[in-house]
Design a protein that fits this description.
By secondary structure, this protein is mainly α. It is built from 6 helices and no strands.
Length: 185
Amino acid sequence: MNSTYLTNPLEFLITTLFSLYILAVMLRFLLGAVRADFYNPVSQFLVRITNPVLVPMRKVIPSIGKFDTAALLLLLLLQILSLVLIVMLRGTSVSIPALLLFAVAELVLLLINIFIFSILVQVILSWINPGTYTPVGALLHNITSPVLAPIQRVIPPVGGIDLSPLFALIGLQVIKMLIHPLIGT
């Protein structure tokens, strides 16, 4: 057995567990930033799994405007901790500035991926079941509106078809392509 026999499964577990919780905190941050309905069942789930860590942090770290700074700090700390554990597991070293840059870039990429996935799901839901209310559909609308609304003001619907999701997806993909070379992935 070589050293990667346990390293690869441990790295997978660390990455997966941290990524899932970071995703939950990021969604909670986004839903707070867009003032989504927190009585929504999906919002309630996110609140319940993130409150044990966020509530004590909020007692020390106040929000700035509509942005939950405790959630932002938690996101950064979790991402850094995940990266530190992976670096230690691999037996390598990384400078602190590089670690911070990589953590911030990973969080920005996660945010972009959330927007991309939310837009795609919202478009698919509009094709399958247009005009009906679902709790997930309402949250998707809240999440995507900061990205889609500015595009919709510039590009009106053509023949009754809203092209803003297409242009948003293209723009988000271009941003991802610009970030990836900076972090070496």
